[in-house]
Structure formats: C-alpha cells, structure tokens
Write a structure and sequence with these properties.
Length: about 325
C-alpha cells in the first residue's frame, strides 16, 4: 500500500514526464522476485489504442478539459497527455511496501527543479551493491525526520536511476531496493505462464495484473475474499479495434469455485433481465463469457470498441479518432 505522501509524489512525477517511442510493456525485470501482487499500465499502448485515443479526445472536449490541461502545462511546462510510457506497481504483501517503476524520458533537471519546491526536500547519495555503476541520488520530500526511524506517511522518495527509469517508494530503504532492481542487482519475478500467453495474444496490452491473495493477509482486510480466493490474474488489451478482457480467479476449493461460478452467472442473468428493453446494452452482457475449470473461474470479454463506445455513451462516437500517432508527435 502506497502512503499518501508517496501518492502525491507519484502524481507529481506523472505530470512531469515526457513520452518516448521506447517499449513500455510489462517487463519481468521491473518486478522483484518477492512480488506477491502487481499491476502494470501501458500508457503508450493506451494512447495508440482506439479506446484510449477516443477517451483522451473526449476529455479534451468535455467541460473545457483542453483549456484546463493547457493551463497546467503552462504552469509546469509539460503536456499531461504525453506524460508517461508505463508504470509498474508491485508489493510483497507487507504494509507500506509499494514500489513504483516509471518508464519515461524526462528533462530531469526540470523535474528536479519542480520537486525541490516541495516542503522538506532533501537528497542523499545511494551506493549500489559492490559500488558498481554511476552515482545515484535519492530525492525525498515531506516532513523533516527527527531520527533514523522512517515513517512512510511522512515522506515520499524518488530516484532517477537512469535517463529512462525512475523509482518511487515510501521509504529510502525500499527506494534503494528499487535502484538495485533497475540496475540488475536483484533477482526478478517470472510472470505466470497464463498471464504471459494472454498478454501475447493482444497487439496493445493496456493493463495487466496479478494478485496472490494468500500472501496479502496483512493488506486485504476482507475475510470473505481471503476465504474464497487464492489468486487472480487480469489483462485488458486491444487488437484490431476490439477490446479484449480476461480475468481468471482461482478459488480456495472446487466447491467455492462452483459457488462463485453460479453467483457470477446469476448476476449476468439479473443484468440481462434489467436490459431486456435495451438491446444495445444487452449486447455488452452477451459479450461476457463465464467458464469454470476445476477451482478456476474465467471471465472473458471481446467486443468492437466502436460498439462499446456507441452503447455506453453515444456522444463518444463523435470523438472516435485515433490520436495515438499525433499525440506522440506533440
């Protein structure tokens, strides 16, 4: 779980990054070997997708959105719509352990000049394992520390490990672990095979995630979830103008899986009854397929982005323009 201070720093950094054409897809090297949950968002793919570019264009047109974004860009000197390539957030399941790896191309001097305006700015040198590599700095903002004990809610930390990668974390120690990860001095996680296969089937993977529920006892407070679910995998992507979603949930037992499967189909049935007079929205429900294999429940969805936009909000159809290439040239 990321602390409030880290979230603030994370948002600030999002504002200051510039886009590049380098790949920003999920990379195993951005995940420590003790990772129990992660989510990866590929903003580069989102901008290139029909869904993402349409929503971005809509946001610019809606309620003076473009004027607001232009105003922010004028203040900080960066275009928010081309702010970042990709972000990977991971945790090992312990409280206050949330590591963010950002892929970017930034004018780091300008980024730092903005961060240095925050309260309590301080920078320290970090020496990597074995002293290998160039000197790395960890920058932090927030309340001034009065002793060696770190309080995650008090400060946020960021390090620009190289010209394309930044690490954000709620403590200096964890930021150091992220630096070691980026420099290749730590063992990394092997992605679940099924997730890798699923991601490989889409041309533009937008979101991918994995959660080991059994290992997140200190983070997940809902006992019902812990009693029912062992782990879950999710990915969302776009291929040739079709939005593709896949969610796999592994239950704690075959019996629990059967219960969850029946419950999911029941919910779809109720939704179908409510939409019987709305054939367009009924198509969205019919596009959702639920299946079960032993203790695993799989939900899959596939539909034309044009149809989704038309069914969910007809006004969005007016902004159905692929802005991916143009955005990347701004």
């Amino acid at each position: 779980t990321l602390s409030s201070r880290t979230k603030i720093l994370f948002i600030l950094t999002l504002f200051l990054m510039n886009i590049v054409s380098q790949a920003s897809e999920l990379n195993e090297d951005d995940l420590p070997d003790n990772t129990k949950a992660f989510i990866h968002l590929d903003f580069d793919a989102l901008r290139k997708s029909k869904l993402g570019s349409t929503l971005i264009n809509w946001a610019q047109k809606e309620d003076g959105g473009k004027e607001k974004m232009d105003e922010i860009e004028k203040d900080i000197g960066f275009d928010l719509l081309t702010a970042i390539n990709g972000v990977t957030i991971s945790t090992n399941g312990k409280k206050d352990y949330g590591m963010v790896i950002l892929k970017h191309t930034a004018n780091i001097k300008k980024v730092l000049s903005y961060i240095k305006k925050a309260d309590g700015y301080y920078a320290t040198k970090y020496k990597t394992s074995g002293g290998k590599g160039s000197e790395t700095y960890i920058h932090s903002v927030g309340k001034k520390r009065t002793n060696l004990k770190e309080k995650p809610d008090d400060r946020g930390y960021i390090s620009f490990v190289d010209k394309n990668t930044a690490v954000i974390a709620p403590s200096r120690k964890l930021t150091g672990e992220g630096i070691e990860l980026v420099k290749g001095n730590r063992s990394t996680l092997s992605l679940p095979v099924e997730l890798s296969i699923g991601i490989g089937k889409v041309k533009l993977p937008l979101i991918s995630s994995y959660v080991d529920i059994d290992a997140l006892g200190d983070v997940i407070e809902d006992d019902n979830i812990k009693d029912m679910v062992r782990d879950s995998m999710f990915f969302l992507g776009e291929t040739d103008g079709r939005l593709i979603m896949n969610l796999k949930i592994t239950a704690q037992s075959v019996e629990t899986a059967e219960h969850m499967y029946n419950m999911a189909n029941g919910l779809l049935g109720i939704a179908s009854l409510k939409m019987k007079n709305a054939p367009e929205k009924m198509s969205l429900i019919k596009a959702m397929k639920i299946s079960k294999k032993q203790s695993a429940i799989i939900a899959s969805f596939s539909m034309s982005v044009d149809k989704i936009l038309e069914y969910t909000d007809p006004e969005l159809k007016e902004f159905n323009i692929n802005l991916g290439d143009n955005l990347n040239k701004r």
